[in-house]
């Protein structure tokens, strides 16, 4: 945290809204939970004086349902970043299976950046 506090900008990342998906997608150290991950970002941002950016990656069948998008919105509100960047799977190896339609992506962006 001391090193990150010296930076002008810090970026957090969010891909999962369930513990199971967090463990699968983010592959954290053993015992580290989604709840701790979110809490740590929120606590860091509260004391951070720079620009905190949260990148949210939308992944088909993981966080693109209405329920998941609403949960993402709740998490974003809790973390309270200065900026939100909504991304999608851009790597060609994963696009076919994990990308979402342009229409759905735009709908999600509207909800998350509201």
How would you describe this protein?
The protein has 114 residues and is of the alpha/beta class. It has six helices and three strands; from the N terminus they run αβααβαβαα. It has a single domain, classed as Alpha-Beta Barrel (TIM Barrel). The protein has a three-stranded parallel beta sheet, with helices on one face. Strand 2, helix 4 and strand 3 form a beta-alpha-beta unit. The longest helix is centred in the middle third of the chain and has 14 residues. 18% of the residues are buried. The mean pLDDT is 95.
Please write out the topology.
Blueprint: H1 2-5, E1 9-14, H2 19-26, H3 34-47, E2 51-58, H4 66-79, E3 83-88, H5 92-98, H6 102-112
Parallel strand pairs: 1-2, 2-3
Strand order, main sheet: write it out.
Answer: 1-2-3
The best one-word shape is: globular
Distance from first to last alpha carbon: 29 Å
Structural class comes to: alpha/beta
The number of distinct β-strands equals 3
CATH topology: TIM Barrel
Mean of residue pLDDT values: 95
The CATH architecture can be named as: Alpha-Beta Barrel
Cα-atom radius of gyration: 14 Å
CATH superfamily caption:
Aldolase class I
Biggest pleated sheet: 3 strands, parallel
Q: What's the CATH C level?
A: Alpha Beta
Number of helices: 6
Brief write-up:
With 114 residues, this protein is α/β, with parallel strands linked by helices. It is built from 6 helices and 3 strands.
